[in-house]
Amino acid sequence: MARKPLIAGNWKMNNTVSEAVVLAQEISNGFESDWLDHLDVAVCPSYVDLKPVRTVFEFDKLKVAVGAQNVFWEPSGAYTGEISIPMLREIGCAYCIVGHSERRELFGETNEDVNRKVRALVAERIGEIHPIVCVGESLAVRDEGAYLSYVDAQVRAAFAGVDASEAKEAVVAYEPIWAIGTGRTATPEQAQEVCAAIRATLTELFGAECAEGMRVLYGGSMNEGNASLLLAQPDIDGGLIGGASLKAKSFLSIIKEAL
Ligand code: 13P
């Protein structure tokens, strides 16, 4: 089954509102809207930048989506500092990154937290927000050689209690921690091996039809120089891009590689 690629930029904790608006406008200026016949594109700015960035794309009638970098699973209540799914939905978020390794490592997010967020997102049938579920091993796990079983367990934990009709809305991103922000990209073969293994896990969980339709992305030092070979792999359906998404020129170049 042909899957439509997804190129998503994770801006992480970068860009004030004014900086974010400038970057969004630069992306819009360099974008050719017929690209979106062939692939989906999203940017994931900080919470405060979401609405202004979305407004730039809406004003230009460009269907580049916006996504959040995190969410809390409760719909409302006394959870100081948290952001809910209805809040994201109202400002038109189409995606939400869940379980990024920086959240797992720096903010103590567990597999159980990730699962609660995924379940809350896929349970929302109206104005749906697609989770981008991040998995990936540390260098220590890679060096031990147990990375496939480690990632398999992360995928199973993230999707516990989710059925195929819900899972098909989700995206999985394989982001080996040793490749994030390090300039040390996984080779296309390394990335393909794990993305294929992720699809095999999804097939066991949800059946072949569902798993063949789900997008599996690669993330970790992807840039305009290495994107083409990574995106050519049969089980890599796009990229989750950090540093290289912060400059319009490099982000647009990666999008062109995915066409
Ligand atoms: P870099 O592209 O900066 O390595 O970041 C990848 C990432 O963490 C995307 O979520």
Plain-language structure description:
This protein has 259 residues and is α/β, with parallel strands linked by helices. The protein has a single domain (6-258), classed as TIM Barrel (Alpha-Beta Barrel), CATH 3.20.20.70. The protein has twelve helices and eight strands. The chain has helices at residues 17-30, 47-59, 85-90, 101-107, 111-123, 139-144, 147-158, 164-167, 188-206, 208-213, 227-231, 248-257, and strands at 6-10, 40-44, 65-68, 95-98, 130-135, 171-174, 215-218, 238-241. The protein has an eight-stranded parallel sheet. Helix 3 links the parallel strand 3 and strand 4 (95-98). Helix 1 (17-30) runs parallel beside helix 2, helix 1 (17-30) crosses helix 12 (248-257) and helix 7 crosses helix 9. The protein is globular, with a radius of gyration of 17 Å. The relative contact order is 0.15. 1,3-dihydroxyacetonephosphate binds next to strand 8.
Which structural traits does this protein have?
single chain; 259 residues; alpha/beta; TIM Barrel; 8-stranded parallel sheet; 8 strands; 14% strand; binds 1,3-dihydroxyacetonephosphate
What is the residue-mean pLDDT, rounded to a whole number? 96
Oligomer: single chain
Tally of domains = 1
> What compounds are bound to the protein?
1,3-dihydroxyacetonephosphate
Return the CATH class. Answer: Alpha Beta
Order of neighbouring strands in the sheet with most strands: 7-6-5-4-3-2-1-8
Distance between the termini: 17 Å
Helix content: 40-55%
Largest sheet: 8 strands, parallel
At CATH level 2, the architecture is: Alpha-Beta Barrel
Helix/strand order: EHEHEHEHHEHHHEHHEHEH
